[in-house]
Design goal:
The chain has helices at 19-22, 36-50, 63-76, 99-105, 107-114, 128-145, 157-167, 211-214, and strands at 8-14, 56-60, 80-83, 150-155, 188-195, 198-206. It has a 6-stranded mixed sheet with strand order 3-2-4-1-5-6, sandwiched between helices. α6 packs across α7. By secondary structure, it is α/β, with parallel strands linked by helices.
């Protein structure tokens, strides 16, 4: 067999449990920090990723993502490159509301979101198409700048869902709705790139490192 070319490895990590997650609220672009459980999840995740030879760390600039990235950055003595591009979807008027409050006060926005209508622009917010555009533009640059390296990106459940669907080839110009890929708090999606169109999916929502902290529940709060 011919030797495979060296690969670029990408790790997409959802932030640890936030105070908003614990209360069942839409986080959006809100400044909700990690809960005590979230900080413990972040520490466990850092210990696992530190063994995998991570060479670059990127993060959403929202505090819950940065706080999740910090333990790994400290272990590896690497800087955290913060970017608005990896923020969660801007959920506009739904930000900070519980799911029940959203359903009652803004039913059109709520149901378009949970039905994953990718064109719907939430009032005072953005659409899933907008979310995907800003993430993929940034990711393309990162993969180019860190070819054959191991890159960790700390982000959010909706952002990770849509970039993963994109990498799976599950979204095209005519797509109107999509499935939802659950990523638990501090779950890890792992990918290999051996060329621009040669993507290997190694794992989705890997939470093996969290069993002692969170248990086996993969269905964390949105």
């Amino acid at each position: 067999d011919r030797l495979m070319p060296p690969a670029t490895h990408l790790y997409l990590i959802r932030h640890g449990q936030s105070a908003g997650n614990a209360e069942g609220r839409f986080g959006g672009h809100g400044p909700t920090p990690l809960s005590d459980l979230g900080r413990e999840q972040a520490e466990k995740t850092a210990k696992v990723l530190a063994k995998e030879g991570i060479t670059a760390i990127y993060s959403s600039d929202l505090i819950r993502a940065v706080q999740t990235a910090e333990p790994l950055a400290n272990l590896l003595n690497l800087p955290i490159h913060k970017s608005e591009a990896f923020r969660e979807r801007n959920v506009g008027v739904l930000q900070g509301l519980t799911f029940d409050e959203s359903k009652q006060r803004f039913p059109d926005d709520y149901y378009a979101l949970i039905n994953r209508n990718i064109h719907h622009v939430i009032t005072d917010g953005e659409s899933y198409r907008h979310l995907l555009r800003r993430i993929t533009n940034e990711l393309r640059n990162i993969l180019r700048n860190h070819n054959r390296q191991r890159i960790a990106i700390f982000s959010h459940t909706g952002a990770i869902c849509y970039v993963t669907l994109h990498l799976l080839g599950a979204i095209h110009r005519h797509t109107k709705t999509t499935p939802w890929l659950i990523t638990s708090n501090c779950g890890i999606d792992r990918f290999e790139f051996r060329g621009p169109r040669n993507v290997r999916v190694l794992a989705l929502n890997d939470t093996r490192h969290l069993v002692k902290v969170t248990g086996n529940d993969a269905f964390a709060a949105r």
